[in-house]
């Protein structure tokens, strides 16, 4: 299968400072409605969402402070101060601390943050926050924000995450571009597959090749948002190991008769795509073809059911009805899909216990899976954006059995 090199859209491949100001403005309205003078946000993706500051999250606390007027300030270790000025010049100088756990200052960073919050908001009776304190990572230990600030802290991560669930046209354009490159990367991987192919080597080699092509095509329009990972990525697992929904790589090479469960995605402007396919090395057996057909019918049902105004759980119910009709329910291990964007999984979920209303602008994966012990797994995943009348598939890689059979 030959793959055409995407030419890329002429649209900007990044968000603007105004986009971030608008986000903080919408959060400010929520804070006003709920009676909070400020919100402290610790989650790295939430910080980036509100400010445009992308960073390597370590043991050193980072937080965004957003007031009920929409003003934004970053709280960072001193080593990140110049990084903030480069990425977010409109925010002004950040509030800094010397180092974690104190850098000789004798003061834990969270105590520095608490002191700054009391200074900025002396009349506050309570603060909103996405989390009660900085997340424990890389050895971090520290007080809760409530203790550090000397104020009640009410956790409301939904203030940010509910807004993140509805993607703007600019965000959708970035995800659409990412889908182009996920499709392209997957095609390179499929071309490279042959008997004896090593999972890890083929995955990494085609990821690097796709990234080189992507950067050559997009040039300076591509703006990296991380210091690790590649802009285009591929992977696959093979054989009976595919019966594990999140199976790890194995040593050894691809063999005739193997089932492959693959994945590929692009990253553009800090936003991801999602693409997964079930493939076969040589002609599938009747049993393999049966479960492939059942999975494909379930994914078709999920795509058709994804419509605005419906609760998430109804999509799952319709997909399960198809799986039940094919006798597949004993082999189902997870729900139909999830939202995503800046992170690989985001709220809400296409799950029996998620009543969230589906709304235009939401981005979902549709990925029902069937996992037969001793045989293998069967899962396609596609990126869809909810429209005013239904949903549009943004990942356009072939889904049919013939296109996904590797000749031997």
From TrEMBL:
Biological source species: Deinococcus gobiensis (strain DSM 21396 / JCM 16679 / CGMCC 1.7299 / I-0)
Domain Peptidase M24: 174-388
Record's protein name: Cobalt dependent X-Pro dipeptidase
Organism phylogeny: Bacteria, Thermotogati, Deinococcota, Deinococci, Deinococcales
InterPro entries noted in UniProt: Creatin/AminoP/Spt16_N, Creatinase/aminopeptidase-like, Creatinase_N, Pept_M24, Peptidase_M24B
Cross-referenced PANTHER family: AMINOPEPTIDASE (PTHR46112), XAA-PRO AMINOPEPTIDASE P-RELATED (PTHR46112:SF2)
Residue ranges constituting the Creatinase N-terminal domain according to the UniProt record: 23-98
